[in-house]
Each structure stands twice: as C-alpha cells, then as structure tokens.
Amino acid sequence: MTSVSAFMDTNFRHFNARETLDAARAWRALLDRGGAMFLTMAGAMSTAEIGVSLAEMIRQGKVSAICCTAANLEEDLFNLFNHDEYKMVPGYRDLSPQDEHALYEQGFNRVTDTCIPEGVFRQVQARMTALWREAAEKNEPRFPFEFIYALLDEPGVPELFQVPAEHSWVLAAKNKGLPIYTPGWEDCTLGNIFVSEVMRGNLAHHGAVRHGTEQMQHLARWYTDMAARKVPVGFFQIGGGIAGDFPICVVPMLIQDMELEQTPFWAYFAQIGDSTTSYGSYSGAVPNEKITWGKLDADTPRFMINSDAAIVAPLIFSYVLGE
C-alpha cells in the first residue's frame, strides 16, 4: 500500500473522512468489476487546478466521460495558456470594494484567491472565432469541447503552454477521446464572446455550436452504448447545479420518455459538496431522493461528502490510482 492510500485507510475512520474513504473504495470496486465512471464538475475546480490530479485519472482510464460547467472547460484552457500571468490573493477575505475595483482596473477577474487576467480571454478569442467561423461557413456545427480539442491540435499551440501539459485535464481528455458535456454553455466567457461575435457580424449565425438538447442526445447514445456492452456506469459529482442534474437525468429520460425500460440505473453515486441538506435544493438533496426520480436504484452505493472538493477530490483520485 502506498502513502496516500495507507494514510486514508489508517486515519479516515468516521464522519466525512469515513464517507470519503468508502466512496474511494467503492469507485475502485466499480472499476474492478469492469465498470466505468462518469464525472461531473461544478464550481471553480479548473481554477483550483484540479487537472493536476484529474488528468492522471483520465490518462489511466479511471474516468470515461465528463460533464462540467462551461467555465470549467474553458478555465483549464486559460490556465494552460496564461498561468504565469495569474495573480494570487491569499487575503481575499479582507479585500474592500475599492480593492476589488483596483483589481478590475488592472484587468483581473477574481475567483476566490485567484485573479485571472483579462488578456487570456482575448488570446483565445481570435483562435476560437476562426474555428467558429469555419464551422458556420461549412454548416458543420460542433460541440463546445470539440472546438477546444481542435484548438489544442493546432500547430504551435503546445509551445504556448505555461504549465506542464500533464496538468491539463482537458488535454488528457482530448488525448483519450472522452466526450465533455457542457450544458448551458453560453454561461461562460467563451459563450459570451461567441454571442458578441455574432452581434458584431463576425459570425453569420448561432448555428456553429451544437445545442444542449443535442448534447443530451449524444450522452444518451453514449450511455446506451455502455449499457449494451454490459458496462455499469457510476456517477461522481463535484458540486451541484446543472453540471450534475443535466447528465444524471439521462437515465430517467431513457426509461420514462424513450420507454427503454431495460435501461440500467447509475451503478454508483457520490457527491462532494458544501451545501447542507435543505428544502428544495438540488445541491443539498441527499442521494436517496434520486431514487424517487428514477436515477438510482434502492441498492445503488451512495455517498454524500460534505467538504471542500479542492481538498477531498484529489485524495479520492489518489486512492483510486493506488497512490
């Protein structure tokens, strides 16, 4: 047993620590019986550089598909290109409104303790606009992640990286051919830029990017293909919101709306979040509520970890990797 795994096995005995260890062990067990894991991410996980640990999970086949907020998709890219220009603000809790305005005037957008330079958006904008324009002109729309993959394949792009390539989870996903679903893609910087390019006349129409319903159809086909191959699929959720609710609904959609009653439920469920159990909140809903929605079965392994995902997720990843 290696150091991280041994530490967790020895010390993670109760409360959220025990839940964390149980979730990690069950992830291993799912993979050991030929299963696959679907991972979702909300929050600013790419800003937190989750790629340092998640990329290796992808490379080793521990994650088979991803759904995330559009901000997480693009921010891994921004970090890859412009990490050295980022500004850290460890004392962010003490910032006054005037301090925040000073950061804005300096061209920084703050996410907790990390300030992202406005220039990174502009550096990517020209390259992405060219890809969007080509798709629009050829009437060959793509999913948002496919544009990102195309950009990463452009000549000379690797020379622009400011962090090790192995720390980019999106690059790892591209190299493994994983689908990345981003429901509500317009709610991100690149989505906003796309709209502005259409309004300025630089793009002829909105049709270059494939819609959210097409993403759901793609996910449904991915899931049914796994089911046809008898591969049980688990669901590991970081945070809540649309990144988690959109993909988990594919199972009741297939069963109830497509009337494919033999569709298997998700084979595992775990969530890391800091939302407490509350009334009517998706992020704060306990996992067993999902049974009534036809997402999980009564005997599906379920875990709810109330903690900081920036701390817990890398530990679970390390355990699954056997580190």
TrEMBL record:
<dbReference type="InterPro" id="IPR002773">
    <property type="entry name" value="Deoxyhypusine_synthase"/>
</dbReference>
<dbReference type="InterPro" id="IPR029035">
    <property type="entry name" value="DHS-like_NAD/FAD-binding_dom"/>
</dbReference>
<protein>
    <submittedName>
        <fullName>Homospermidine synthase (Spermidine-specific)</fullName>
    </submittedName>
</protein>
<dbReference type="GO" id="GO:0034038">
    <property type="term" value="F:deoxyhypusine synthase activity"/>
</dbReference>
<dbReference type="Pfam" id="PF01916">
    <property type="entry name" value="DS"/>
</dbReference>
<keyword id="KW-0520">NAD</keyword>
<dbReference type="GO" id="GO:0005737">
    <property type="term" value="C:cytoplasm"/>
</dbReference>
<dbReference type="InterPro" id="IPR036982">
    <property type="entry name" value="Deoxyhypusine_synthase_sf"/>
</dbReference>
<comment type="similarity">
    <text>Belongs to the deoxyhypusine synthase family.</text>
</comment>
